[in-house]
Prior knowledge:
CATH superfamily of the largest domain: Response regulator
Oligomer: single chain
Domain HTH lacI-type: 12-66
Protein name: LacI family transcriptional regulator
Number of domains: 3
Keywords: DNA-binding, Transcription, Transcription regulation
InterPro entries: HTH_LacI (IPR000843), LacI/GalR-like_sensor (IPR046335), Lambda_DNA-bd_dom_sf (IPR010982), Peripla_BP_I (IPR028082)
GO molecular function: DNA-binding transcription factor activity; transcription cis-regulatory region binding
Amino acid sequence: MQKKAAARTPRITIRDVASDAGVSVAAVSKVLRDAYGVSEALRAKVQASMDKLNYRPLASARGLRGRTYTLGLVFPDLRNPFFADIFAGVNAALERTRYQAMQGISTSASALVEAMIDRQMDGLILVGPNENNERLNDIAKRTPLVVIGHHDIDGAKFDAVNNDDQLGARLAVRHLCQNGHSKIAMLSLSAPVSTVINQRELGYRLEMTEQGLGGAINILRAPQVLRDVQLTIRKLLESKDKPDAIFCWTDLMAFEAISVATELGLSIPDDLAVVGYDNTIFCDFSQNRLTSIDQSGEVLGLQATRLLIERIDGRMQPDHFVVTPRVVARASSARND
DNA sequence: TACCGCGACCCACAACTGGC
DNA sequence: GCCAGTTGTGGGTCGCGGTA
Length: 337
């Protein structure tokens, strides 16, 4: 036997509101859009009817004539609390607007992005997309697009918001040198390779060379899998050429470095100094006290949203916003902290 | 000039119509 | 019966004309 579709309660439409309030459909629409030419008396009447009928505008219908007031936000994953900082920035930027952000998870500009475009979202923010400019430009042709964490902006048709990752890595190395460390290893990501990783590795190399430590350059790469990260760190710390400091490409990796080092009986920071990246909320926890490079996730989210709304409002020229990172020193690196 | 409403319009899909 | 073309429908927005 065929299943019957569940019966739906008839939807309350703008026509029902207009009929209840004794005004035209257009008048209700104007109240909804806060458009010019609506008296306070009419607004109050329409608002009362909307409240009474529990009316909600239908985004897909709005999309027929223009905007749905919906923004798509795509993260590569949600395990890293840094992404929550970005989302907080997006929400803060949308607070006084009519837009709502809907988020999803994808490591590439994938079917999820296409689905968001199909659903007529007014614009997209992609965080750390693992895509080339050709693909990103193709998306930007179809919908306003802002990318967070993508440094290759030559010929880009989209807006970009970036932390200065090269400078961030340099600051990490400089900070460790200032605290008396010279055998500084970098724990990086093996795949997917991104422009962010490239910039941080470049910054590490440049600063090591500038500090006269070019011969000690040591970059290890591990995938974002806990077991692989632990094995890589253990191998490094048990090697003859053990470093006296590690610069990790995220805080999450840095926490693992601290755990493995503690298991091996090493003291932090006397035997091993550790610096992370992102300055997430967990850095402040007393068992961590992790020195980290702050790339202001909230600012990244805020600026990306600002640029996206500008784009939706008609700006054609691509824009690029760069956030300057800073060191937030804690006990994991500063011997006298 | 401020306020209000008519009617065209948007797009995808289903239903209808007419010709072969 | 099949296919292609036309019309209607859904829920909003928008431009412009009418009225006080």
